[in-house]
Amino acid sequence: MSRAEAMPAGAAQHPARPVGALWTLGLFRSELLVTFRRWRTLALLAVLAAVPVVVGLAVRIETRDGGSIGGGAEGGPAFISQVTNNGLFLVFTSLAATLPFFLPMTVGVVAGDAVAGEAGAGTLRYLLVAPAGRTRLLAAKFTAVLAFCLVATLTVAVFALATGALLFPTGEVTLLSGTSVSFGEGLARALAIALAVAVSLVGLAALGLFVSTLTDSGVAAMAATVGLLITVQILNAIPQLEAVQPFLFPHHWLSFADLLRDPVYWDGIVKNLGLQAAYTAVFASAAWARFSTRDVTV
Questions:
Q1: What DSSP line would sit under 122-173, residue for residue?
Q2: pTM
């Protein structure tokens, strides 16, 4: 389906509508179709889906003779020791395993290609001819990237849940604080954690969108965004930079583990939400400022 086919059919007959809700919804629908029908996007989602399957099989093989998997006391490592007792913990383990690199890398690729990919393919100029305006177009692209953040995270969570239920027992969930809750409440917490992880990627999505407005090469924008991600992750791991690390967008990513405590520790989660909101405000505004004044010649 082309972008023209994705636009509202009534827009051509009603010239007063293109700047209204129909064009906005049409743009968003078009961006979703373009984003999720690309082979690259499907391949990235397939890789994310494979991670929990591989982790689950590895744990199953490692413990087939009654052995155990060691785990630390914090974050992701603490989850893996619980997988053999309850398959639901494979969801938490898989999200913790993919969040440092795999999940943000896929978001960086999609966000970096959002504008630059269109410019490189020569379709951006055509899109700007439409009367919806640059602001609506950029908003539709950013919303599609945010939708990908959610879909990518849920892909990991759903495949982890299915794999965990097939390979390991399920039932009451023992939280990190030692409290036991029903499997239903555990599922609810798993959904909340998936949403928290998706929100954690919003700041990176805004950064990638801004980088995408700076170049006409989709490959360059994707490489730059992923390169920035790796650089920031390295900076976040250097002890000597402890003073600046709380201001780096990945610093509080693993705070989602606090949703598995009773009572929930909200401090890290709130800090993460605030940090992602700040990055989103800064880089989404920068992307709009750049895109609204950009001279598109291709």
A1: T-HHHHHHSTT-HHHHHHHHHHHHHHHHHHHHHHHHHHHHHHHHHHS---SE
A2: 0.85
